[in-house]
Amino acid sequence: MVAAAVIIGLICALVVALAVIATVKAVRTVKRGVDQAVTQARRTVEDTRLKARQFTQAGPAGEVAELRLSLRTSMRATQEVLREGQKGDASLTESLALFDRLSAHGRELDEDLRKLETEPDRERVAACLPDLRERTKQVTHSADSLRFAAQDRARQFAGDELSLLSEQIRMETGALRHWEADDAGAAAKDAEKTGAEAKTERPAISGRDASRQWGYTWEKVKRPESPA
């Protein structure tokens, strides 16, 4: 009885532990989903605000919003392409490592641009723009290069795989229609056999028929001698 009670107690403890683990995982999953939703909502709100400033504010303020928007759009698109592509192509790991290093510069640049949005001195904003414009160009160009290369690589792999698949399907369809090859071989053998039989039955050409007077068309006809 004591052993049975101990076993039952262990089973109950195990069930409780599993329930706790499952609950913790569920909570973490929900929390992760909520965090992602909140992050996405913040991005959407920020992008909408930047688009509004880009078109409603002229001069340096509008250009700062434009630079931030182009930076965020390029970096986000590249991140999505690389992370999605890495699932099927492990060689993109190095590309992701380079992108992480680039992201550090991108975040620093975005923070510098964000600070300029609240800078009241318009002359200072205008003076800082050339350097920020060049940095934005460098970062977005690097991000776009990584994204374009990953996309080209994925298209090339897809094209190669499609060509290989098409060849395999062509071979398989040929194998499925094996009777066509068998019928063609049988027909060739029948034709060869029929030709051999016809050649055997054909009579040999004998000498000229004596009943023919004129012979072949290209032979001269010997006229009978006239009586003396």
What does this entry look like structurally?
The chain is built from 5 helices and no strands. The chain has helices at residues 2-56, 60-86, 93-117, 122-176, 178-201. Helix 1 packs antiparallel against helix 2 (60-86), helix 2 packs parallel to helix 4 and helix 3 (93-117) packs antiparallel against helix 4. The chain is mainly α. The model is unreliable at 204-208 and 210-220 (pLDDT under 50). The termini are far apart. 82% of the residues lie in helices and 0% in strands.
Topology readout:
Layout: H1 2-56, H2 60-86, H3 93-117, H4 122-176, H5 178-201
Helix pairs in contact: 1-2, 2-3, 2-4, 3-4
The helix-strand sequence is: HHHHH
In angstroms, what is the radius of gyration?
44 Å
From the spread of the alpha carbons, the general shape counts as flat
Number of strands: 0
Cα end-to-end separation: 154 Å
Strand portion, in percent?
Answer: under 5%
Compact overview of the structure:
The chain is mainly α and 228 residues long. It contains 5 helices and no strands.
List keywords for this structure.
mainly alpha, 5 helices
